[in-house]
Amino acid sequence: MDLAAFRYVVIEGPIGAGKTSLARRFAERLHADTLLERPDDNPFLARFYGDMSRYALPTQLTFLFQRVDQLRGLAQLDLFRRPTVADFLLDKDPLFARMNLSDDEYALYEKVFKHLKAQAPVPDLVIYLQAQVDTLVDRVQRRGVDFERSIPPDYLARLADAYTRYFYRYEDAPLLIVNSERLNFVSDDGHLDLLLRRLADMRSRREFFNLGSQP
Length: 215
Fold this sequence. Notes:
Rossmann fold, 47% helix, 13% strand, globular
């Protein structure tokens, strides 16, 4: 694959997988703009982790409207603007909704989502970061966001499983599935170099990258 041809790249993964950190580093290397989730702008998020059933719907809808607004400017990507690297995939949004909403709430959410989804462009590439649940828990605890410390490990386990099942069926864009257990994209330039070389070597629309399998 020609990395210079990528205009819209998405980095995805469950909470703690490292998607935002990689999105920033990836954008630096590609001289690209970033499009990052804004959890601090969601007034319901901290309350959601304290009472999930009560605050799931306003949290989900707030994120949905926020993401659609952010993506609106990408609907007409052209060859003369800088590429964009995002740390969220709109098509994955229902994954959280299905986990956290009641049936009636999900029916309402689904109507809103279907109405808004058509405004989102399809990525040129998706990088999906995987990690063991214990690793996700450790990373979430170490990054020190107060309300995230209350996230139950079993919630992260269900989330990781939902991501695995979602990307098992994902076919809309070329996909590189990355085992991030032994990768540190923040402080190890060599790991980022390995990832970029792996991307350049992709020959099919769905491939895997595991540091342990590299020479």
